[in-house]
Amino acid sequence: MPFDLLIATRNPGKLREFAAIFTGLPYRLRTLDDLGIPDEVEETGTTFEENARLKAEGYLALSGLPTLADDSGLEVAALNGAPGVYSARYGGVSGAAQLEYLLAQMRDVPWHARLARFVCVIGLARPGHSTEFVQGTLSGVIETAPRGSGGFGYDPLFFLLDENKTLAEVPPDHKNRISHRAAAAREARVVLERWQAEGLL
Ligand code: ITT
């Protein structure tokens, strides 16, 4: 009998990534839409972990199901870690304007000081236990102009030194292997295997 696991996202791309990495586990992945749960939990935290906790524990309370929730974003060293948890609303704009905004903030920063990383923190909550957290990161350098049309968000400005390409220029299946979210999801898989072995669900 598979266990139900709520994946607390409305982003279908994320759901597919998690489903691929959790292949073979005895969990039936449910979404907020499957369960008819509205967007009630606000991401008011100041760290990725706080937001992952708010979502994982909030949607566990609403659904009664073991819940996985992630929060992710871009940290730029020269900007003291900004935009961080505010990545989705950085500069008060979205889409291409957000890339322009980031480039403007980085205008005077030389190539060697443009280090950045994507961070993904996943919270895993189940009834009667403390919430557990896992994290994944991907390091890169902020480009001086956008390149590529794949991915989403900051991908066209995120240059991978190992690949000599931006994250928007690598094939989607490759991004899904090297991404911060994939790294965190592989750690989450270990937690889910332990929950199963403990038989505590
Ligand atoms: P949820 O419904 O799951 O909250 P979301 O799109 O808001 O989906 P996150 O909170 O995880 O996703 O991500 C916040 C922002 O961080 C996102 O809007 C992007 O700007 C940026 N980001 C996260 N992962 C990224 C990636 O793989 N590539 C590019 N940008 C990313």
Structure, described:
With 201 residues, the chain is of the alpha/beta class. The chain has a single domain (3-198), classed as Maf protein (Alpha-Beta Complex), CATH 3.90.950.10. Helices cover 33% and strands 23% of the residues. It has six helices and seven strands. Strands 2-1-3-4-5-6-7 form a seven-stranded mixed beta sheet. Helix 1 crosses helix 6 (180-198). The longest helix is centred in the last third of the chain and has 19 residues, at 180-198. The termini are close together. The model has no long low-confidence stretch (mean pLDDT 95). Inosine 5'-triphosphate binds at residues 9-11, 14, 70-74, 87-88, 118, 151-155, 179.
User: Strand percentage, roughly?
Assistant: 15-25%
Number of helices: 6
Please, what is the average pLDDT?
Answer: 95
Shape: globular
Which small-molecule species are bound to the chains here? inosine 5'-triphosphate
* N-to-C CA distance: 12 Å
Q: What is the level 1 CATH name?
A: Alpha Beta
Radius of gyration: 17 Å
CATH fold name:
Maf protein
Write the layout of secondary structure elements.
Elements: E1 3-7, H1 12-21, E2 27-31, H2 32-35, H3 48-63, E3 67-76, H4 96-105, E4 115-125, E5 132-142, E6 158-160, E7 165-166, H5 172-178, H6 180-198
Parallel strand pairs: 1-2, 1-3
Antiparallel strand pairs: 3-4, 4-5, 5-6, 6-7
